């Protein structure tokens, strides 16, 4: 057998572990929209447990493997879902990225810390990253020759398990109701909950499964990687490459790409000797592939010109405070810091620590520009700082004057920033983050390994910065200089936010397409942001090197950027204040831990757990404090406001009802009769109150038509009825029971079905799968509606509008709900189709369903309705039997004439 | 109008940035010498009283990769304890405050050095032992002596950094060791017609190691048939096949007589050796890091490393030399039951050399006088580490080393500590 074929076969076998890891990554991303950077860390923890079980407690390998992979890993996934991922799915992209990066730092530290704590009393071995522990198979591994290729037992076990996992995953997703629910939740999460699918439970399942896959990959990889959390993170990046080639959607493609990566690595190792002179190039092959894959395959489709993260800027909670009150805490802290600094001696250790913190703060300011203002998450910030420092050191050592060297350093970083911005023009969100990560790793592994640039491992010496009267060897001088520079950056940021450029940035961030049509150049804006941010990071990097007196390529590793980002975002990335606080914390906190003799793992755990806080409060600690005060101020206000609206609504409704001649002063329907009832409901979105005391009720076998002009609050009423929108005040009753607190999926399961505005279908599921989300056997539907039977294998998104509406309502025919709420069912349909739809409604009424029909176009609805309610400005202004509706009333309802 | 405004403003912004940058550069004016900040009155006698000398170390106790040199603390402590039990040096006892952890992070090492000097007020740093130690520039500025294992170029050419066996990262032109090749040649009964393959990882540090060590074998008369630096530096490759194929065919289609691995990390070596043995390699395996009693505990690791010839830069613990018996006794006193390791020995011998310099400095102790004594043709011989000469060994290794063979699951001394002439590094 030729060497080449040997490399390919052996590569396929070893690529299996990437395939397993990458499949889990793709699964959790596709199912929940959160790209889990901590996927490798979960694998590490499982491997750690496996190691402690086998080596520490002497449990045989197979039972230990079952405990680590099938018990511990799923449990960890579930716990993480409850504690963090659930909140993250609703948070912005920045919070998602930072949250899972925080976990990457915290999880391994937590595991190692626990092992450190219990190692002594239980006589367990400490995790030793330098040796290779045993895997599932025989130990030492047994060698087998298969078709001319020598494989060991661990390799074969890995390959077999990878195939089993892939087959199991495929069967689960395609052929079980759980898989169907998960896919439905991915497709249209909101609709899925309206169909009674607990989307939350689906994501819990997705995290559990993905975590199991990570655990499996971890246990399979540990005999080749060792118990080394960094190695697991590296493996995650390699796997991310496979996931990216599967476009983060397709598990089979991801799996194949994972196998392919094993082959590519073997071929590079076997034949790429020409790359020998460029140190790091061969190591960096997966990273290069990752970057290429991101740029070529993952051009974001739905966001034109690769916009930024989708998080809207939060409200300014301090807006109602006077200016002096807003600035007071900062001014006081600044004065206190300066006074303290100048009462200390020149070689004081703690002033040095504070100065170091301020250097970091200056670097962190660049996060404020690119992430806080620009909404793009950049993981290459440490590389920018490193680039500037190395360029400066190189220039100074080549004999250039120091100021020129500094300027060159900053310009060098800026230039690299512009280069990084180029992929940013095409990519958005997580993809951009991954791309910056790839570039940062590339810089670490290749660029900074060039001896001529970084001067090998020794680096460049740098002189102190002389200011004429003092120089930066005195940490007090550094503190003042850095405070001045941060102030300058602060002014710059403020100017940027308030200038036309700031508005342009905001425009590009929130609506790229609109910004482009308004003549705002998105590429220019992004390049500006990246250039500015990398310039600031570069300046910080140069000062870092100056205060240290030297710079080496390993001073500011790419992974430092992870921790930095977590720290800054935790303090609040939108304000310079957050950056300053973050910098000081990053420098002072580890010193404090060391002084108190607390394990360094604890620091990592705390920094990392910040991610969990972030899942709940995406705008950081500073905003959190302001928000807390704001909420307290608002809460009472809101409560009284809702009560006032209700109080105002009650007499108004009574008056409206009283105006009907046949029902003087009576509620429209006696309470006992109504199956479904909204009682004086107040609801809205954020600060806007839409429903201002709505009373509405439906009896079984009755059609109530809810009519009203655009903006009257009809769709909001539907959302409240289905549980899609929480109420501020009032009650929702089903058969006399208070269901106000029930989530949408629970109401759906109890028989309250909403056919939402637009089409209520899952476009990427087939017709058959769509039906199965509500029915166990779709057979009767096909008998009743043969046109759907002919299309059962087709994706619902490919059906015509009428067919989609039929598909939306069809399941209700077979398994009638107790209450059906149809929001604009005739919207955009041909008259013939509308007639067919209304036939369905009539049939449902015959079968005792309580129907609430919401229509803007009154005619068709009026033909069917038993009772009619008119809405205007968030209130039901009139309700009564169909017979009493005449043209005058209709006109009054729509035109607001009473 | 609006469009124009949007277009015009970035220009202004860029101007502002440039102005800010210029302001910094302008205010900087000139480069100032990095010097000791504030002499603070302590002068060169910081950490010294009439009865004590305060000393602390910086080690890589923890690291992301798991590499740890923490045993050096026990070694130094054991040696200091013996000195104290003997009444100290010139009436002063060593007050050892322990070692800080730099987490294999240059910036943390710098902070640790600053903390020891500025906050704890130590006289000198002993032992300093971390592959990425970042406090070199600071210590050199402050004139604080530091003793340890000089594996990185930050040690070399300084006046204050004392490697216990010299500078192991000499610049081109400076002396480079030949002991490994020569000891191996003596062990194998001559180097005539024998071939050597050197495997390193894909990083500049490891490549540099490959260069010096292949030169060592060349100087001893071996023929180098390959230096491969293809191994990924961050983690072992999932598949060793391509690397092993290269080695197995490097000597004109045959396997070489000796494979030298310049990879830090037992797991790399275990992976490489297991794969080589799987492919039928029967020659000599040699590396610098496998001499570690802890790895014998694991049967598979011991099996993979069986027959390997490790190259420690100190007298092996299995040696019958009285200095080694003394070392073991000292360690047993401060930490009973400790199995001696490479890092422990490094800490021990670093402390030993520091004490020797203290002794030669005399009763009147300042950092200046200490450095003058150490750098004024200091020479010290000891069977434990060979010999050391400063200032010569500030820029080249001391040229001494031993060989240990793992045989039947136990280490045996193959060649005792011996010093050889250095040759200039190409």
Automatic annotation (TrEMBL), chain A:
The chain crosses the membrane at residues 6-27, 34-55, 61-85, 97-115, 156-173, 204-223, 229-246, 253-272, 278-297, 349-370, 402-424, 431-450, 475-493, 527-546, 552-570, 577-598. One of its GO terms (cellular component) is plasma membrane. GO terms for biological process: L-amino acid transport. It comes from the Bacteria. PANTHER family: ABC TRANSPORTER ATP-BINDING PROTEIN (PTHR43820:SF6), HIGH-AFFINITY BRANCHED-CHAIN AMINO ACID TRANSPORT ATP-BINDING PROTEIN LIVF (PTHR43820). This is ABC transporter. It is found in: Cell membrane.
TrEMBL record, chain B:
SUPFAM superfamilies: Periplasmic binding protein-like I. It comes from the Bacteria. Coiled coil: none annotated. Pfam families: Peripla_BP_6. Residues 1-31 form the signal peptide. The keyword Signal applies. Gene3D superfamilies: 3.40.50.2300. PROSITE patterns: PROKAR_LIPOPROTEIN. The keyword Signal applies. Keywords: Signal. Residues 52-409 form the Leucine-binding protein domain. InterPro entries: Leu-bd (IPR028081), Peripla_BP_I (IPR028082). Belongs to the leucine-binding protein family. This is Leucine-binding protein domain-containing protein.
